[in-house]
Amino acid sequence: MSVRVQRDDFDIGAELAALSDGDTGIGGVCSFTGLVRDLHPQAGEGPGTVKALTLEHYPGMTERQLEAIEAEARARWPLSSSLIIHRYGRMEPGERIVLVACASAHREAAFEACRFIMDWLKTKAPFWKLEDTSSDGARWVDARHSDDAAARRWE
Length: 155
Fold this sequence. Notes:
Layout: E1 2-6, H1 12-20, E2 28-35, E3 50-57, H2 61-76, E4 79-87, E5 89-91, E6 96-104, H3 107-124, E7 127-133, E8 137-140, H4 145-152
Parallel strand pairs: 1-4
Antiparallel strand pairs: 2-6, 3-5, 3-7, 4-6, 7-8
C-alpha cells in the first residue's frame, strides 16, 4: 500500500517495477496515468485553450482520503500491492498528474481495483483545479456529472 502526494513528476517505469519487485505471485499489474489536456471539455473549447493547470490540495487531509480510497479497494479485491501518486502545483499540457497501479494474482482484480480507485479519486479526493486558459484567463474547474455517475457504480 502506497500513497504519495507530491509536486515532482514521477517515473512510470520505475514505479511499476517497484510495485511488483520480487513478488512472483503477481499475475497482472493494471495502471492508469492521467495527463494534463490542453482543452476544456466543459466549455466546449478546442485544443490549445488550456495553457496550464494548477492543482491545490489540503495537506494531511488529502493523503488520508487517498489512503481510505486505497484501503477500500484492498477490501474489495485481492490486491498484492497498490500505488497512488497524485501531483499538485502548476503543470502544463502533456505533463503527468496521477498514477494509479494495482497488482494482483489475477488480471480482473487489478483492472477493477484500478478503475475503482480512479473513479473515486475524481469525486472524493480533495483537490481543486484551476485552469489557465487562453480565452478566459484562470478559472476553477467544476465537478463533472459523468465523474459522479462513474463513482456511483461502485456504491
